[in-house]
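Recap from last week: sequence in, structure out.
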Amino acid sequence: MLIIIPESNYTFDSSLKEITLSSPYDAVEEGMINEILDLSTSERLYSRDLLDEPISISAGVITHTHSSSSSSQTDSDKLAILVEVGVSSGIPINVISKEGDLKTADDYESLGVADSAVGLTAGTYGTNSKCEMTLEGGSIRVRKDGTDPTSGEGHLVNVGDVIKLGNNDDIVDFRAIRVGSVSGVLKCTYSV
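Predicted structure tokens:
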């Protein structure tokens, strides 16, 4: 899965050609980086497909070798750092997200996810419009279109991943099932 590192999780030193990643993205390895774009100057600082301007990464600091044609590149430039994450990356993934973060928590549930697809509990979420979940136990697959996932179909969610739902329809239509022999447990917090 390809993700973009949030702006709040990096700092850019244009003169040193260094991008310092903060936790949990400081665990990113060189092979995981697909592309780095400077959105402010419209320049590509790195592309895994183009081997002419390599990068290196050490202790969460990416050093690029791109020769900027723009003299206006600054530390405050907005970057798009595209990273490929997967099952063993250790990087939390917002698997399903909509705009908006949780405000005041209204309700909570702990939902077991076994070998039969389950949805969230209507009597618990009610009319809440936001849900944030973390996964414990074993890996699961999820869907939010009202269709039951299978152990091989749906978004793969691994232990520690975060799922955010941003409206009541998605909460109502959310379904989950375990992938292997270990059941998962979703820790769910709801808000308006």
